[in-house]
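Quick one:
INPUT:
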């Protein structure tokens, strides 16, 4: 592998992050509960990490601002457009996975 400079690594990581965000915006059919059950994180987790990164750099960012960035629109609007009701099975899976952690 090519030896990367710190700046190159930052740029590559940032590009990969932007691609992940774009992919999640495009795949609004994938519900957050599904992401949590399969991968252990969801769009809300990602927005919390985004806000945490801003906080660590002493940059002011609200939870809603972070969610707007990740979702590409206000969170409440995304929920109304795309969020489906969680089935009992999905909820049970979520509870089971949470206990396993």
């Amino acid at each position: 592998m090519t030896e990367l400079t710190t700046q190159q690594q930052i740029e590559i990581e940032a590009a990969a992050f932007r691609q992940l965000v774009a992919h999640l915006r495009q795949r609004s059919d994938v519900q957050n509960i599904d992401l949590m059950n399969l991968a252990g994180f969801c769009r809300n987790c990602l927005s919390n990490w985004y806000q945490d990164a801003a906080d660590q750099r002493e940059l002011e960012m609200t939870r809603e601002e972070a969610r707007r960035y990740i979702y590409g629109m206000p969170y409440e609007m995304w929920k109304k457009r795309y969020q489906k009701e969680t089935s009992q099975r999905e909820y049970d899976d979520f509870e089971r996975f949470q206990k396993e952690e």
